[in-house]
Amino acid sequence: MAPPSKKSQSQKISKHALRKPFKGKNKDKTLNASMPLQLEDDVPDFPRGGGSSLSREELDEVRAEVDAEFEAEERLLKKRKKQNKVQRSSTEDDLGALFGGGINGKLPRFANRITLKNISVGMKLWGVVSEVNEKDIVVSLPGGLRGLVRASEAVPPFVEDGAKLSEMDTNFLSSIYHVGQLVSCIVLHLDDDKKEAGKRKIWLSLRLSILHKNLTLDVIQEGMIVSAYVKSMEDHGYIIHFGLLSFSGFMPKESENVEVKIRSGQLIQGVVKSIDRTRKVVYLSSDPDVVSKCVTKDLKGMSIDLLIPGMMVNASVRSILENGIMLSFLTYFTGTADMFNLQQTFPSSNWKVDYPQNKKVNARILFIDPSTRAVGLTLNPHLVQNKAPPALIKVGDIFDQSKVIRIDRGLGLLLEVPSSPVPTPAFVNVSDVAG
Fold it and tell me: DSSP state, 4?
């Protein structure tokens, strides 16, 4: 039989022998250099000295081919890994980690944020009334967004039954809502803005029949904060309507703040003082000082459907995230607060040291996404006191003397805007920073 050609030897060595040192995971220590490694019947054994029937040039050529193949494979793996990382990072940035972490049991990297990309129907949000018009209400929402409430979604059902909206006093909405009022609302639907690409109209509802859909008399407890309509005025107080037919409420006049004029149809917040379960009547107090200090207590079997934006809870720091903190509250729930909802108005670069693990804080629920179980919290001092932060700037204002407080690499800049009487924090996204 004719001896094998050098070309066939080169091919077989390239395929079997020289590739193993790069990919092989065989850690069998019984093999040693004195044991010949038989590659094929027609390929000579490798003696201990490492000799070969191939010339040095041919061996160098074969090794170069294998090295090139290995390096190409490594580059491909690194490229795929980088693409996956960029894709995950982009998704986390766009969605604010609303959909990450909780499903697979891993802690999220980012605090939950509300954006135009991830806002969805059914989300419950805490907002501030910024405009009251004849036919609708404009509400400022978390994340710098704005939502619209049609009159039909702001007026209590008993008022609507008594008069058609088109025939109502043109000032009716402004008589029951006011600018700066904190309200709990729910996203009804979203419309793409035909005039401006990338913009969406957010339509909201203030109807308690939707917000209180899962509220029953059995789960109401003393000290709980609830929203209600003033249905009618009686000699000793006010008949209260919770948007549900299963129970009603009453608010004695002595609990009324004399500075606030209350009228039928008005939306109020109250603290549950007592409950007559036989008559199915809940007694409230609307004293602002009492309301602002009440903390929601643990309730056995409480579900996420019973969480309402604006509720104050005792929370403890669970972990530090890249743009905020993760907190646990009401035993079973976790939520996050981003850097714009921390206790400091202007968080410094070392803000993380202010939130050691297990630190106790008071927080209010900012938003809830029932579909993903994401909960946003706020530690903002104004909101914790149940007051809207001062609105000292408006869209289009120009400030030449703004100060850079912090640089967040890859995210943007935190600015101190010289508004009056106090400065206002503002954030510039990295895509909007001038070169």
Answer: P
Output the six-digit token pair for 369: 């996404």
User: Residue 14 has what DSSP assignment?
Assistant: I
286 contacts: CB under 8 Å, gap ≥ 6:
251, 255, 256, 257, 260, 262, 268, 269, 270, 271
DSSP 136-165: EEEEE-GGG-EEEEEGGGTS-HHHHHHS-G
Q: How far is CA 433 from CA 24, 395, 413, 429, in A?
A: 50, 18, 8, 7
| Count of residues making up the chain | 435
Q: Which two tokens stand for residue 98?
A: 């609303």
β pairing state of 146-150 and 124-132 = unpaired
Which two tokens mark 52?
């070969």
**Chain centroid offset of residue 335 CA:** 8
The token duo for 431 is 């895509």
Q: Give the model confidence (pLDDT) of 68-119 as tens digits.
A: 766 776 777 776 666 655 554 444 444 444 543 333 456 788 888 888 889 9
Element containing residue 82 per DSSP (H, E): helix 56-95
Q: What is the DSSP string of 35-73?
A: S-----TTS----TT---SS-HHHHHHHHHHHHHHHHHH
Integer Cα distance of 312 and 90 in angstroms: 32
Predicted confidence at residue 327, as pLDDT, reads 97
Q: What is the DSSP letter of 305?
A: G
Q: Which of 433, 395, 384, 393 is nearest to 416 (CA)?
A: 393
Coil, helix or strand at residue 24: coil
Q: Which two tokens stand for residue 186?
A: 């729910």
Of 187, 194, 197, 206, the C-alpha closest to 145 is: 187
Lowest mean pLDDT among 242-246, 305-309, 378-382, 422-426: 422-426
Q: Which two tokens stand for residue 155?
A: 């007026």
Angle at 310 between CA 307 and CA 311, to 5 degrees: 55
pLDDT surpasses 70 at 304: yes
Enumerate the β-bridge partners of residue 416.
403, 425
Choice between 18 and 196, residue whose per-residue pLDDT is larger: 196
pTM of the model: 0.70
Question: pLDDT tens across 144-196, in order?
Answer: 899 999 999 998 888 765 445 555 555 789 889 999 999 999 999 998 766 66
Distance CA 209, CA 153 (A): 10
Strand 281-285 vs strand 124-132: parallel, antiparallel, or unpaired?
unpaired
